Amino acid sequence: MADNVKNSLYVGGCLCGAVRYEAEGAPIYTGHCYCVDCRKASGSGFIPFMGFASSAVRFSGQTRQFRSIAARGGEAVRNSCPICGGLVFGGEVGTHEWHTIYAGSLDDPTLFRPQMAIFTRGRPEWAVIPDGLTVFDGAPGG
Ligand SMILES: [Zn+2]
After folding, report:
1. 112 C-alpha to center of ligand 1: Å?
2. Cα(20) to centroid of ligand 1, in Å?
3. Among 5, 20, 27, 125, which residue's CB has the most CB atoms within a 10 Å radius?
4. What's CA 15's distance to the chain center, in Å?
5. What is the Cα–Cα distance from 104 to 122, expressed in whole angstroms?
6. Distance between CA 112 and CA 7 in Å, rounded?
7. Per-domain residue ranges for the chain?
């Protein structure tokens, strides 16, 4: 974990507020994912993500789940709000041991400190990588 990752209470949710979360501590990993799936799912150039152990996060509200084959293999589960459609987090509550929270859903987005850029191959030029991130073509470490 990099020094600049903040130990804090990470609070956020979807656009309408029906889906909410609170995560405590410091994220295990943070970054921007430039994979095609994240681009398509978000309608944007990348998804900013924070990884937390499921024991550190509390979610409230019903979500709509979308499952797909993950870029790194296995199944990716994305949770969005069934009312407003806002994309909030990844992983299945009660099943997975960790969750990725999409940092754009934070109430205070200044808490987010991206460390790495992943799946940058195939990234369109306009999806800019901020200075100082560790860049991976594909999965981190690979
Ligand atoms: Zn909503």
Report:
1. 21
2. 9
3. 27
4. 16
5. 22
6. 11
7. 3-135
CATH architecture for residues 3-135 = Alpha-Beta Complex (3.90)
CA 28 to centroid of ligand 1, rounded, Å: 26
pTM over 0.70: yes
Contact 28, 1 (CB under 8 A): yes
Asked whether 59 and 20 are in contact (CB, 8 A), the reply is yes
DSSP state of 38: H
Structure-block tokens of residue 70:
């993950």
CA 108 to centroid of ligand 1, rounded, Å? 17
Q: What are phi and psi of 45, to 5 degrees?
A: -80, -20
> What is the whole-number distance in angstroms between the Cα of residue 139 and the centre of ligand 1?
30
Spatial separation of the C-alpha atoms in residues 118 and 134, rounded to whole Å: 8
